[in-house]
Every structure is written in structure tokens, then in C-alpha cells.
Design goal:
By secondary structure, the chain is α/β, with parallel strands linked by helices. It has one domain (33-149): Response regulator (Rossmann fold), CATH 3.40.50. It has helices spanning 41-53, 64-74, 92-102, 117-125, 138-149, and strands at residues 33-37, 57-61, 78-83, 107-112, 130-133. It has a five-stranded parallel beta sheet, with helices on both faces. Helix 1 (41-53) crosses helix 5 (138-149) and helix 2 (64-74) runs parallel beside helix 3 (92-102). The longest helix is centred in the first third of the chain and has 13 residues, at 41-53. 30% of the residues are buried.
Length: 165
């Protein structure tokens, strides 16, 4: 369903419509873009659809090099980078290092499907603002990102655990 018709002089509505015509949550701030970096096409698309429905602007990259190119182009709009730690080509450490050269304060969250406690701690030591364990619910991912973008600590989101508001 298409959004209602409006002329260029009318202000954009505070709440837009999702692809299915349902309401989309209001953005958490003027800079709520997320760069999603994962080599799995389905993960990228599902995260994109879920975050856009929650009001985020989303860019997709399939590897670290593509992520750096997109971040260079859109860094003024990107508030957080969601990064799979296990990708072919540039791995997570190389990607994070390159992102930190562009912006030492970049907010990086890892999405991991198979990390044990030691690996989770290693990701945190590499500067992760948060480590999200796959599988996760998309609305809970959005809540974690909102918390982090506001400078608040987010509760760990572990495979189906509920995120506290």
C-alpha cells in the first residue's frame, strides 16, 4: 500500500507507513541510521525490514570493504554499525579498525550466531558497544539500538531473551 498523497509543500508526517500499510515507529532522533554488515543476504534483508519498520534508516553491506565505502558516504547519517564478526574477506577486527580511523567514536554492535562467552568478551574488548546473539527479535534489536544511540546501556540480548525498556 502506498502512503497517502501529499504535495511537496506539505510537511512529511511524523509517522510514515510501512510497506504493508501499517504505522512505522517514530525515529529515535534525527540521526538514527544503521549500517548492517553481514555476508548472509537473508540476515541483511530481514534486519533491514525490521529496522525500517521501527523507523530507522538502513544501509546494507555484504563485507567490510563495502561497509567502509558506505560509511564514508553516509557517516553523517549513520549512528550505529551492526557487524557480523565472522565474514569472508575483511573480518570484524579489520573492519572496526578502518571504521575507527574514520570516526573513533563510531558505535559498533556485533551480531553473532555462534559466539561462546570467551568470544563475546573478546568482541567487547575490541570496542563493541553491544553484542547481540542470533537469533534475536527485530523489535528487541531496535530497542537495544535506541538505548545505545541515547547513550544508555542496553541489557544483553541473548537468543530470545526479552529486552527491558
Amino acid at each position: 500500500m502506498r502512503p497517502p498523497y501529499r504535495t511537496a509543500t506539505q510537511p512529511a508526517p511524523e509517522i510514515s507507513q510501512a510497506a504493508d500499510g501499517g504505522p512505522v515507529s517514530q525515529r529515535c532522533d534525527k540521526r538514527s541510521g544503521v549500517l548492517v554488515v553481514d555476508d548472509d543476504h537473508l540476515v541483511r534483508i530481514m534486519v533491514q525490514l525490521g529496522l525500517e519498520r521501527e523507523g530507522f534508516e538502513v544501509w546494507l553491506a555484504s563485507d567490510g570493504r563495502e561497509a567502509i565505502q558506505l560509511y564514508r558516504r553516509h557517516r553523517e547519517h549513520v549512528s550505529a554499525v551492526l557487524l557480523d564478526p565472522c565474514m569472508p574477506g575483511w573480518d570484524a577486527p579489520a573492519t572496526v579498525d578502518a571504521l575507527r580511523k574514520l570516526n573513533p567514536e563510531v558505535l559498533v554492535c556485533f551480531m553473532s550466531g555462534n559466539a561462546d562467552n570467551d568470544e563475546l568478551e573478546e568482541l567487547r574488548q575490541r570496542g563493541a558497544a553491544h553484542v547481540i546473539t542470533k537469533p534475536f527479535l527485530l523489535n528487541e534489536l531496535a530497542n537495544v539500538l535506541r538505548h545505545l544511540m541515547r547513550g544508555m546501556a542496553a541489557e544483553p540480548l541473548l537468543a530470545g531473551a526479552r529486552c527491558q525498556e
